[in-house]
Specification:
48% of the residues lie in helices and 16% in strands. The chain contains 19 helices and 24 strands. α11 crosses α12, α15 runs parallel beside α19 and α18 packs antiparallel against α19.
């Protein structure tokens, strides 16, 4: 069979190959496609419901995980933000208290008089928040404002620029009402025996003997004994002192709660609680600052300042740890508020004033804080009459737990002040103490009052007097926030996602049902199309195979004929090129080969003659380019000579102009000096200052002219060195004598230690004097009055080192590299010292003309040092 195929012609072989490689695979592919479509139909119909169910589960699970992660991220971000807010508030309180220290020490050094105290007290005030009037709403049982809420609100403002429009938020500033409140309620001076001598007070204006607590604020202060222990400059700071404000209603004060307790509706007699009772009684407290007063080395008495505690409460009462950020009235109903504790853990600021620990004005003793029921039982069986005395015997923070309950009897009596040490039904107390035990801060989440709350604590870093004995300082600030507030965005997203998922599930079910029918119809049509298409493709492939094989064989036969004609030495024969494919390109290549052989054989001599002619043309072009290059060199040499002449002319012009201008400048300076010396101008200060300004301006202009003249000489190459041996000290002394008046005007002392080594050196003495004069002038210019300039001459490795060090403003590090350039001034000199920017440049030219170096550097203790070096035996040279 294979032999028969081998004996066939190319045309037959090509047809057979096309059928094998095209039709057979086409049949296989068509069969596989039809089989695959049938299997896909079976699989789709069988597993569509399962896939739909799995898709629903995956989407739901993904949504739940995403929302859970979103809530967790929001919690962490909110926790960090609330911790930072707590620390900021605590630091602000500490700063405010330290300012009171400064007030006390300042006033202790001032004149002790009633007038001084009154002026000082009137000058110290601070804005305090004032909320609008609230009325009780019988329908809702809550208190409502008579005015519309004026907090910070997001409005509909849009960005003016397109680049800024993404998430563009604008909040209108809150329009809260405030009033100035004096920082101090009382300023007193009492003698060494405790008797008040001077007093300015809004509490009690009578002078009293404060050795006795009965004569102090609400009969509760005992600061005389503490004052006697103080040394000069020391300060005693008291606890928060104020009368306890009771309340028998915890939470919102409404008629329902009042009726249950069989009480009259009288909110004004209960403790203030912000929105929960805006008409309640306010806590009025003070913090007493005391320091001894000395006149000379003698202690004559003590000064006290009574800080109004309202200014401490202002820091926490109006903080809202939610989007609202700040409010003009506190609200404890939602658990989002801030409060404060002292170093012992007693509440000293709260949105509900009845939670603040206070004193009983009748007895002068502190009212005990709210305790747990188990602690109350232990007190009843202890035999100790007073609760305060009993609490001193028990363990603090004793197994605090949410499982414990507060003592109801204290609630009925209205005595519910918060003392963390014995508030055993509030375990967050122990948590706050743990967070602040080393003076730090932190937070945790706790389930409190039926909600999860994020609570923070941060130390108030005020460590004066007794507060310096605890790392908690003055105490600590805490902020509580309802965690649900931070989940609102995520919960809203979850609800939206649930609605979207429900709609999408129904939509997907309908879509799949429709797709099932479409797929069955489509598969049937597809099988029919594949069958017809396969048959059609088979016919087309056979036709293409016959046509292609016929075309290839004809063109191959044309090539064979061309080769035969060429082999018979018929060089003129050419194959007809009918296409640009590979066979056509082969025919073209054959024709080109025949043409080249023909040209080579009959036109070789003409080709040689043509190549020789081209070579001669190239040689002529090269000769012409060489001549042009030489002409260009001549032009460049002439240009350089003209530039050198122009530079010489510039320097000559600068020199001539400097000489011409200096003569009238000396005249102006003389007339200005004469005007300054007239005795009649001594009384006329304006005329004297006028002539002084002319004289100073003239000196600056003359300095600029001198520098320009020196610069022209250096650039023109006119400086010649001559031999001068010895007398280095004399050169320095000449400069010191010339500038003695300048030193005296700023009271500057120049330290110069004469060199002990042989000072043989070859130099231009006038130019070296000029350099030393320039450097000394700079040092004086940038030195403050009453300072010292050190001038030193030393020898090192065959070099003389001249250094001038000042204690002035120094040179910016980034300018050290360019300070010796022409017309460059230090940015510091531009702010006040003035100058032309040529002195250091000229000095550099002179030193480098002596084969030396000059450099500047800043001193570690302020100021700068400029040093230049000269070789010990300089050959006579000329500055180029």
């Amino acid at each position: 069979m294979f032999e028969r195929i081998n004996n066939l012609g190319i045309k037959a072989k090509l047809v057979i190959i096309f059928i094998v490689i095209k039709i057979v695979p086409l049949l296989i592919i068509s069969f596989m496609a039809i089989k695959g479509v049938q299997e896909l139909e079976t699989y789709f119909l069988k597993d569509t419901d399962t896939v739909l169910e799995k898709a629903k589960n995956v989407v739901n699970d993904t949504a739940k995980v995403a929302i859970k992660d979103s809530i967790k991220a929001l919690d962490q971000k909110s926790q960090t933000s609330l911790e930072r807010l707590t620390v900021e508030v605590a630091n602000d309180i500490a700063q405010f208290l330290y300012e009171r220290n400064s007030d006390l020490l300042f006033l202790a050094q001032s004149d002790l008089s009633h007038k001084t105290f009154r002026l000082f007290m009137d000058s110290k005030s601070k804005q305090a928040m004032v909320h609008e009037e609230y009325i009780y709403d019988d329908d809702t049982g809550t208190w409502k404002s008579r005015q519309e809420k004026q907090g910070a609100q997001l409005d509909s403002m849009t960005a003016d620029l397109k680049d800024n429009e993404t998430e563009f938020h604008h909040f209108r500033p809150p329009e809260f009402q405030t009033k100035p409140v004096p920082i101090y309620k009382e300023i007193t001076f009492f003698d060494l025996n405790g008797k008040e001598k001077i007093k300015v007070s809004s509490i009690n204006k009578q002078l009293k003997d404060i050795r006795y607590p009965a004569n102090t604020y609400i009969n509760s202060e005992r600061y005389f004994v503490e004052a006697t222990k103080l040394k000069r400059g020391e300060i005693f700071v008291s606890d928060v002192i104020g009368a306890y404000v009771p309340s028998r209603i915890i939470g919102t004060y409404n008629k329902t709660k009042v009726e249950q307790l069989v009480l009259p509706f009288a909110p004004e007699i209960e403790g203030y609680a912000g929105k929960e009772n805006p008409k309640g009684k306010r806590f009025q407290g003070i913090i007493r600052f005391v320091t001894p007063v000395y006149r000379g080395n003698k202690k004559i008495g003590y000064l006290t300042l009574a800080l109004d505690h309202i200014h401490i409460m202002e820091y926490t009462d109006y903080i809202v740890p939610t989007e609202e950020n700040i409010s003009n009235i506190s609200d404890g109903s939602d658990g989002n508020y801030a409060f404060m504790w002292d170093y012992e853990g007693r509440c000293i600021s709260h949105v509900r004033d009845y939670f603040i620990i206070g004193f009983d004005p009748k007895t002068g003793e502190r009212v005990p804080g709210w305790i747990s029921e188990d602690l109350a039982k232990r007190w009843k069986t202890s035999g100790i009459k007073k609760l305060n005395a009993f609490l001193k015997t028990v363990k603090r923070f004793d197994h605090q737990s949410l499982e414990k309950r507060g003592w109801d009897r204290q609630v009925l009596e209205g005595k519910v002040g918060l003392d963390c040490r014995y508030l055993n039904h509030a375990p967050q107390c122990q948590g706050w103490f743990q967070l602040t035990e080393d003076g730090g801060y932190g937070s945790f989440i706790i389930f409190w009052s039926d909600v999860w709350k994020l609570t923070t604590a941060a130390t108030i870093p005020y460590y004066t007097g007794q507060y310096g004995k605890s790392k908690r300082g003055f105490g600590f600030v805490t902020i509580g926030a309802n965690v649900e507030e931070f989940h609102r965005a995520a919960d809203k997203t979850r609800q939206t996602v649930d609605v979207i998922l429900e709609k999408q599930e129904k939509s997907v079910e309908n879509l799949i049902g429709q797709n099932k029918k479409r797929m069955l119809d489509h598969n049937k049509a597809l099988i029919n199309e594949l069958t017809v298409t396969t048959l059609l493709m088979m016919v087309i492939v056979i036709m293409i195979a016959v046509w292609l094989s016929d075309s290839i064989t004809k063109r191959l036969m044309s090539l064979i004929k061309g080769v035969r004609e060429f082999s018979l030495n018929r060089m003129f024969y050419r194959i007809k090129v009918k296409s640009q494919d590979e066979v056509g390109q082969l025919s073209q290549a054959f024709n080109e080969m025949a043409q080249r052989i023909y040209d080579y054989q009959f036109n070789l001599e003409g080709l040689i003659e043509e190549r020789t002619k081209k070579l001669n043309q190239i040689n002529e072009q090269l000769k012409k380019e060489i001549i042009d290059h030489r002409e260009t060199e001549k032009v460049l040499i002439q240009t350089k000579q003209q530039a050198e002449k122009a530079n010489q002319s510039k320097s000559d012009f600068l020199a001539a102009m400097s000489h011409e201008l200096r003569t009238p400048m000396h005249g102006i300076l003389g007339f200005a000096k004469l005007g300054m010396s007239k005795t009649q101008w001594i009384k006329n200060e304006k005329m004297f200052l006028f002539f002084s300004e002319i004289h100073a301006s003239g000196l600056r202009l003359l300095s600029l002219l001198n520098n320009l003249l020196d610069l022209s000489k250096l650039e023109a190459g006119k400086v010649e060195f001559h031999f001068t041996k010895g007398y280095l000290s004399n050169l320095v002394q000449i400069v010191l004598n010339e500038q003695a008046i300048i030193f005296k005007e700023k009271n500057i002392r120049v330290e110069f230690k004469e060199p002990t080594f042989p000072d043989s050196v070859i130099l231009d003495s006038e130019k070296i004097i000029q350099v030393i004069s320039n450097l000394l002038s700079n040092a004086v210019k940038f030195s403050k009055p009453n300072n010292t300039i050190v001038l030193n001459i030393d020898e090192k490795k065959g070099q003389l080192l001249f250094s001038i060090a000042d204690k002035g403003i120094g040179i910016p590090e980034k300018e050290l590299e360019f300070i010796f350039n022409k017309f460059v001034q230090s940015s510091k000199s531009k702010t006040g010292a003035g100058g032309t920017g040529l002195g250091l440049s000229i000095s550099k030219e002179i030193i480098e003309g002596h084969n030396g170096n000059i450099w500047a550097e800043n001193n570690s203790d302020g100021g700068a040092t400029i040093t230049f070096s000269l070789p010990r035996s300089v050959e006579k040279t000329k500055v180029e």
